[in-house]
Structures are given as C-alpha cells and as structure tokens.
Amino acid sequence: MHRYIPNTDTQRQEMLASLGMQHIEELFADIPAQVRLNRPLDVPRSHSELELMTHIKALADKNLGATDYVCFRGAGAYDHYTPSIVNHMLLRQEFFTAYTPYQPEISQGTLQAIFEFQSMVCELTGLDVANASVYDGATALAEAAMMAGNATRRSEVVVSGTVHPEHRAVLETYGRTRDMTVKVVPHKAGCADMEALRLAVTPITAAVILQSPNFFGVVEDLSGAASIAHAAGALLIASVDPLSLGLLKPPGELGVDIAVGDGQPLGVPLSFGGPYVGFMAASQKLLRNLPGRIVGITSDTAGQRAYVLTMQTREQHIRREKATSNICTNNALVALATSIYLTVMGKAGLREVAEQCVSKSCYAYAELLKTGEFEPAFAAPFFREFVVKSKRPVAELNQGLLTHQILGGYDLGQDYPDLQNHWLVAVTEKRTKAEIDHLVRKAVQ
Amino acid sequence: MRKATKLIFEQSVAGRRGYQLPPLDTPTVNVSDHYPADVLRTQPPGLPEVSEIDAIRHFTALSQRNYGVDAGFYPLGSCTMKYNPKINEDVARLCGFTNSHPYQPEELSQGILELLYKLDQMLADVTGMARMSLTPAAGAHGEMAGIMAIKAYHRHNGQQQRTKFIVTDSAHGTNPATAAAAGYETVEVKSNDRGGVDLNELQRLMGPDVAGLMLTNPNTLGLFECDIVKIASIVHGGGGLLYYDGANANAIMGITRPGDMGFDVVHLNLHKSFSTPHGGGGPGAGPIGVKEHLVPFLPRPIVEYDGTKYYFDHDRPLSVGRIKNFYGHFLVLVRAYAYILSMGPEGLRHASETAVLNANYMLHKLKTRFDVPYDRICMHEFVLSGQRQKNQGCSTLDIAKRLLDYGFHPPTVYFPLIVKEAIMVEPVETEPVETLDAFIDAMLRIADEVETDPDLVKHAPYSTVVGRLDEVKAVRQPVLRYKEAPGTDASAAHPTRPTTPSPMAPAGKAII
Amino acid sequence: MNIPTTLRYSKDHEWVRLEGNTAYIGITDYAQNALGDIVFVELPPVGTALHMGGVFGVVESVKAASDLYCPLSGPVIAVNTALMDDPGLLNRDAYANWLIAVDLKDSQELEQLLDAHAYQAILE
C-alpha cells in the first residue's frame, strides 16, 4: 500500500475479479517478455514525509540560498521583493492543481487570470497582443526570431552582442535547427553598435534583435534600431525587463514589433534559475504568427461575459506540423504569480520599485567609484545594473566578498574577452544603504 | 450558480494602494536627471490600483471559478492528472533552493547539484537510458531537444540526406509540430486494425531519407505496441533512430522501459507521471534521456560528479547547444525528486499497475453503453467512441459538457484524431475505486439521457458559473486584452474586425 | 447537399467556375458544412504562381484548419478580400463567394475536374 494510492489489496482483487482475472500480471500480457524489467527500479526505498524532509532539507542547506547572504548579482536573475500574498494565492489548489483550461466552463478562474496577465503585458510593452506565456525569456526570444522568419519569409536575424549570452546561445541553437542564420554584432562601449547593425542588415534579415536594459544594464536606443530594421523590411525584436517598464518608455512606442522578456523580476524567487516565465507581445498584424496559448473574451448562452482559449488553430493540437510553434504546456502558474505581483504593486508600486532601483544602483555606483579601486566602464545610463572596471581580477574580488556573506557582481570576462576585470553589479530595491556600504567597504579590503 | 466577476482593472480605484516599500535610505536620484527624456514613459502603464484585500478577494473569487485535482476526478487521457503531494510544495519552498542564484559558485550549490545528479540517475534507470538532460521546460521542449539530438547525430555521421521523420496517425500534435519545427518533413504511418503501428506500412516508409520514428508506447489509444521489438528493428535496420514520447510513462514504471524496448531518445513529462502540478498550464518539465551513442549531443550543460564534487559540464563540443537559460525548471525538478523518493521502487511499480487496473476496470463497465474502437486490454488509459450517441443526436462534446453537471472534469475529447467522436479516459492510480464507480455511474446516466432526453444533454452544462461559450465569436471578433476606452468610443482600441460596442460591457467602461 | 451543375469540382471539395480564361475557385457546400463556422481564411497574394494540387491557402473553423488545394495551375489574379472581414460568407453561400481567381494556363487540366454528378458520387 502507499499513501498516494487509495485502493486496497482487497479492492484490487475485487476489481480484477470483475475483469475475470486473478493476477495483475494478466493485464500486462501484451508486453513482450524480452522487454520486461526483471528487477526493481534502482531508486531509493520509499521515504515517509519525515524522512523526506530531513533528507531534502540537508540538500537544501548545502547551498548559498540557505544562508543570510546579500545578493549583488543579477545577469538575468534578480533578487526582488515578493509580496507575501503571491505565495498564498499560488497555493490555492484551484490554481496549482488545475489543468490547462480546455473546458472553459470550469476554468474561468485560470482563463480570466491569463487574460489579465495578457492585458498587463500589453500595458507594460505598449503592444497590441500578448500570449499566455512561454517558458522563459531566452526561449521567448528564440520563438520571436522564428516568428519574424515566418512573417517576413526571411532566413536571417541580426542580434546585438549586448543581448544576454545565454539568450543568444538559445537563439543560435534554435537557428541551427531551423536554418535561420544568426549574425552577432559586437557591442560598442556597452551599447548596441548602431552603425555596425546597419551594415549587418541585408535583404534577407527577418529581424534585428536588441535587449534593453541590455546585459550590461544599459538602456538602448530602441527607436534608432527600429529605423534600421524597418528600412530593410525587417522587424525589430526587443528583449525587455518588465520592471523597468514601470519607468521606461514602452517598446511599442519605440517601433518595436515583438517585445519579449522574462517575468522573473516581478516577484519570482531566484529559484536557482527556474521556473521563471517568458512573455511575448506583438503588434496586431503579427497576431497569427504569435505562438502559445491566447485567451479571449466571449459570451455564454445567457449573454454573460466569459473567457476562453481562442485562436487555437495556430497551435500544435490543431495545426500539428504547421503550427506556429510546438509549445503546449507553458508557465501559467508563474504568469499568475507575476499578475498577482503587478496587481498588488499596481501603477504606483511598480514605478516606486523601479525608482528605488535607480536611486540605489546610482548610489552604489558612485560609492564604488569614490574608492578609487573601480573605474566607470560605459557612459550610457543604466537600470538596476551597472558595470565597473575593477583593479583586481573579479574572481578574486568575489572570493573575498563571499567570506563576508556577499555575492558580488557577475564577472563579464567569462563571456566577453574584451571585458576582463569588468564587474556587473545589480542593486535592487531590497538592498539597504547598510548593505551597499558594506559591499563597498569589503570590496576594497 | 451563475455569478459574474469583474476584471481586476474594473475594480481599480485611483490612489488605492496594496503595497508598501521601506522608505528610500539612499539619496534620491531623479529619473529625469539620470535618463534622457525620450526613454522615459510619459504615461503610467494601465495597471490596477487596489488594496491588498481587494487583491485577495479577487484572486480568491477567481479560484472559486476553477476546478483542480484536489477538488475531484480529472480523467483526462494523455494528461495523467494524478494527485500533487503537498510535501513536495514544502520542499520546493526551502530557502536553500528558492533563494539560490543560478550564477552562484558551484562550491556553494553542492546540495542543488547533488539533487540534480541523483534525479538524472533515477530517471535514467526508470527509462533504461544512459544519461539525461534535465533542462527542457516541458514535454514539447524535450521533444525538440531530442529531435535536435537525433538531427545532430545524423549530421555528424554524414547522413544529412535523412530529411523526413515518421509520426503515427494517432500522435499527439506536438510530435509533428516538433518534427516540423526541427526542420523535418513529417510522414504519417497508419495504425492497423488492432490500433498498433502497421508494420508493412512502416517497412514501406522506412528508407535512407528517414531520420527516425516518433512513438508513444503505450500509444495514445492506450494500447501497448506489442510489435515494438520489430518496430525498433525496422527503424534501426534502415539507419534511423527511435524517439519515445514519454507522455504515457505512467503505464509502465518498473514494468518495462523504453530503453529496453529499443528507443534511442526519450522525454518524460514530470508534470504527468511524476506528480508535479499542472498549475493551470505549467510550469512542467520535460527531461530527455539518451542512449550512449547520443550522449555527446545532449543539450548543455549536464551535471557531472568527479568523485568529490558535483559540477556543470559546459565543455561539450558536439552538444546541440543550449535550449534554455540557466538549468531548467529547478523547483519542478525538486518536486519530481521528492516524489520518486516518496514512492520508492515498489511504489512506482504499484502506481503503474494500479493505473492500468483502474483503466481496465472502467473500460469493462463503460463498454456496455459506449462503442470501443479497439476491444483489447488497455494500459493506463482507453479510448471510447461517442458514435453511438452521435447517431442518437448527441455528440461527444455534449456528453463532456453534461459531465460538468455531474461534478466531473470531462475526459479528453476528439483526440486521438483516428477515432470518431473520441473520448479518452485516464483514471490514474491516485483515484479510489469509489470515484471510478461514481464517474461510471454518471456516464451511464448520461447515456440514458441521450436516449430519453437528448436536448437536456445538448444544452448542458447548467450548474457551472458560465454556460457553453460562443467560441466562434471569440475568434471572429477577438478581444485579447483589456483596454480602458475613453468614454464609450469602442473604435479607439485594437479591433481585428470591425467592432461594435460590446453589449456585455459593464456600465462606465468599455472592454475592447 | 447543394451541387450546382454549372460548376466543376475537385476531389478536395473545391469548385471551379470558368469565365473566359479566368477560373474562379471556391469551396463546396459540403466543405463549409464539414468545417462548421468558418472564422478565418488565409489566401495567397495576387501574383502567386499556383500549381495544380498545391496548397494555396487555409480555411479555419474554431477547432480545425484545412488546407486549400489548387485544382488548376496559373497565377492568382484576384483574391476575394470580403472574406477577410466576414469569413462567415462561406457558410452562408459557398457558391456565391469565390476565394481566388486564377488565370488558367493549361485548359487540359479542366478535364481532370469532376462534373456535378461525379462529385456527388464521391460524397457518397
């Protein structure tokens, strides 16, 4: 017997008897003997809850997250505030144990929540339509590139080297598989190199791809990139930070055709990288190329407003090999978490968090420069993250900081050979002045 | 019980607040000093302004318009809606996991890496494979990674001419969608009259231009492919590889393994057989497993152990590359790990045996009133046809909607495509026999209703918060977001078709 | 099932009406009925070169998408844009609402089409 399997041995026997059988083995007669597994599975014996918690807690405790460390590392995963109501709502079984809302009459909760998520993504990005989510920011970017390829019938994308290295890696993987060429244009002084982008764009470019704030924290000139892309008949794809959009101009107003990104900064815990949530928004004309699920409004037989999965003929379960993407399960529960965050923070809250990130990161930047041990790397304005050039190797710097329970900034030299000793420091609204001062003191010890 | 709800935007009150941040303790920087004017917003985003209690009431109300496994039976074929253990939620929320940064040093992530490594080994044993990659975010993502690995393998061996991939006519839509997304031309192989792959057809289709075959076993009809060894031999004999769609793994844990059946690549849906919650549509996880000859092509990174420490191996020159940022849906993987430890080897086997018994028990009782396209022992799920009822005036859709009135989530309908008026039922092992009996009873009563009062069935459901929806209108006049309109000027928003002001908008604000 | 005798048909449930050298192509009453409420029609741009048997577009209902197979070869000279705004026209009158007009290149291809009688036969 097992605590998750209700039917008793007696009940099993009765059920078998109803089938005219005596042994469970008779049900597996179709399985050829030569493929039968004749030993138990090589997994640990069954654990009770008490043993399970002891064992797993021991594993959890062997990680930095179990300590009281202070986080100044970002690079795509940010230590932001999560309002307590998010977790309480996510633990409502009606949300987390529910299936995809294919039967809308009993899924109005999920469907309306997704509709609200879509609406909020459109508000933040200033674009017309959004889907119900995809896996993460990296796959959202890859899907956007494929979308652009389908919409323009072109086979190349031009991406700035200021886009997150892992996002570019995923884009390249998808590109190799779909025969979509990915051209990378190196950064210039921490920004996308507009002139080089202009030269790289050709008549077979489906899209120009930028990130803003970019991997270095720098806010890019999206409307400049839009002119370059559109002049060549290509689309502009921008990977954007949803938190920054509480403050920064929405990509839709800057000529961006497809905006993607990761919702992690909206109260999703660091979680060693996942699950986070990818979002995608696009202009109206690209609706039919948009992958993923989409919820729309309709009415029921009594004329009452209701929500339903719609435009399903784009998707795999109907179009099969002609689907816009193969995506089925997405990241609905995490999308819900971000909706709850945006609901409770609201118009004013999102802006206030973003403003605190600006003030605190500017303070940290100024204080680090004052020590004389760090120099500015780039001149352009940043959001929440900045780069300084360190006199000491970053690895050594970070090693020292760890002894003081500080997770220092990201070592850019790992990904950019021309940026050795460049330190990417993230400062969110959670970092107090005391923590920042402590970082600065210990960084020069 | 019909009750309308408002969108959260419609509950907004200007100036209302639901949050509080600590006061800024560093000097205030004016954004207009830090940024040029042309990158700054001129209008705030249209997010709601509500208090914490408004938010709680709103999401609570939404949850009450939903149905989860915790509420009741969810016999969706192909979805494996088993119970989601609550201890898994607790372990996934341990701060050692939730508070760890993906780029923290590996020396300070040894617990996490050990969990991943052990999960890799356990799943490899369950599937009979050499190594796993735990990074795919969902089944379809795993399929993509697996097909990419096959493609890379063939290219590496100079077999670029293999441009086709065979899928079955009963395949889940993600199979041909994935093959096409990976750049293959899909070819369909027919099922025979026992519901298995037609071997002669497969032999005919297999050739030097075929990269492989994607198969689910048991298949989407819930039937075990008895000829699996022969199928493997035909595909391998032609130089192709065999891909296993693990959506139906719940039927076979501890009993047989795809690796032993001859498959080269598998994916598992952790949100199916391994109990991680569906979350209303994700997040799931779709790890893939491969045989030795495909290990070099696995997506990177993979977790390794050198005898003293665990680490991520990024140095994999033949890898298909990265398919996701960071390392996959880590907290979902934690839940699967916890599940396997809770079950143990006997528990996993017991789960599959019980799932298969539950399904056969139900099939036996339902076949008195519903057509059964393939009258054989089924595995963990089975397919009925609602054709008899269709001839009496009610479609499978009507039956599904009427089941809602009996308090059940309907089974999967209209899939697989090769069965007319298909109804696919998967009871799972976590359901007690009393629930199965109650569902059978409901189905038999509905079969009666179809005969005696078909109109009742055709206009169901009656007891849900909304009735049947106008899905045609939802596509012809798409309204895919909320937008507050100035006054009642509906044309100010984003219509795809000429719109008329919505008759269902509450007074004061138009929903466009 | 409505099958006008003045038209010719393909086995893929399309009809053809010839006006001089221009072939107007649409879907049959059987097809619109099988699809259910049509919600979207995707048609090729004017000028596209079509080949007999090739896919020239898609017609979608809520739960299904069907490829449209071209019964004749030739360039597309006109597209019925009214269907973009009101795809339901096809349900209301499948024969009055053509999808595309093609400049017929090879009149021999007409012989491969079915007459009303032959089309009726395949429906049975």
Q: What does this protein structure show overall?
A:
The complex is a heterotrimer of chains A (445), B (512) and C (124). Chain A has 445 residues and is α/β, with parallel strands linked by helices. Chain A has helices spanning 9-18, 49-61, 84-90, 93-96, 108-125, 137-152, 165-177, 194-200, 222-231, 316-319, 332-370, 394-402, 433-443, and strands at residues 70-71, 129-130, 156-160, 181-185, 205-212, 235-240, 258-262, 278-282, 294-299, 305-310, 374-376, 385-390, 406-407, 410-411, 422-426. Chain A folds into two domains: 70-81 and 347-443, Aspartate Aminotransferase, domain 1; 84-341, Type I PLP-dependent aspartate aminotransferase-like (Major domain) (Aspartate Aminotransferase, domain 2), CATH 3.40.640. Chain A has a seven-stranded mixed sheet, sandwiched between helices. A four-stranded antiparallel sheet of chain A has the order 11-12-15-14, covered by helices on one side. In chain A, helix 3 (84-90) runs antiparallel to helix 11 (332-370), helix 5 packs parallel to helix 11 and helix 6 (137-152) packs across helix 7. Chain A starts with 8 loop residues before the first helix and ends with a helix. The model of chain A has no long low-confidence stretch (mean pLDDT 96). Residues 487-512 of chain B have low confidence and may be disordered. Chain C is of the alpha+beta class and 124 residues long. Helix content of chain C is 19%, strand content 35%. In chain C, strands 1-2-3-9-8-5 form a six-stranded antiparallel sheet. A three-stranded antiparallel sheet of chain C has the order 4-6-7, with no helix packed on it. The N and C termini of chain C lie close together (11 Å). The model of chain C has no long low-confidence stretch (mean pLDDT 90). The chains are: A alpha/beta (445), B alpha/beta (512), C alpha+beta (124).
SSE order and pairing:
The complex is a heterotrimer of chains A (445), B (512) and C (124).
Chain A lengths: L8 H10 L30 H13 L8 E2 L12 H7 L2 H4 L11 H18 L3 E2 L6 H16 L3 E5 L4 H13 L3 E5 L8 H7 L4 E8 L9 H10 L3 E6 L17 E5 L15 E5 L11 E6 L5 E6 L5 H4 L12 H39 L3 E3 L8 E6 L3 H9 L3 E2 L2 E2 L10 E5 L6 H11 L2
Parallel strand pairs in A: 1-13, 3-4, 3-5, 5-6, 6-7
Antiparallel strand pairs in A: 2-8, 7-8, 9-10, 11-12, 12-15, 14-15
Chain B lengths: L30 H4 L17 H12 L22 H7 L2 H4 L11 H18 L3 E3 L5 H18 L7 E5 L5 H8 L3 E5 L9 H7 L4 E6 L12 H10 L3 E6 L11 H4 L3 E4 L19 E3 L11 E4 L4 E4 L16 H37 L15 E4 L1 H5 L4 H10 L6 E2 L8 E4 L7 H20 L1 H5 L12 H6 L36
Parallel strand pairs in B: 2-3, 2-4, 4-5, 5-6
Antiparallel strand pairs in B: 1-7, 6-7, 8-9, 10-12, 11-12
Helix pairs in contact in B: 3-11, 5-11, 6-7, 11-14
Chain C lengths: L7 E2 L4 E6 L2 E6 L1 H7 L2 E5 L6 E2 L4 E7 L3 E5 L4 E6 L2 H4 L3 H4 L7 E4 L12 H8 L1
Antiparallel strand pairs in C: 1-2, 2-3, 3-9, 4-6, 5-8, 6-7, 8-9
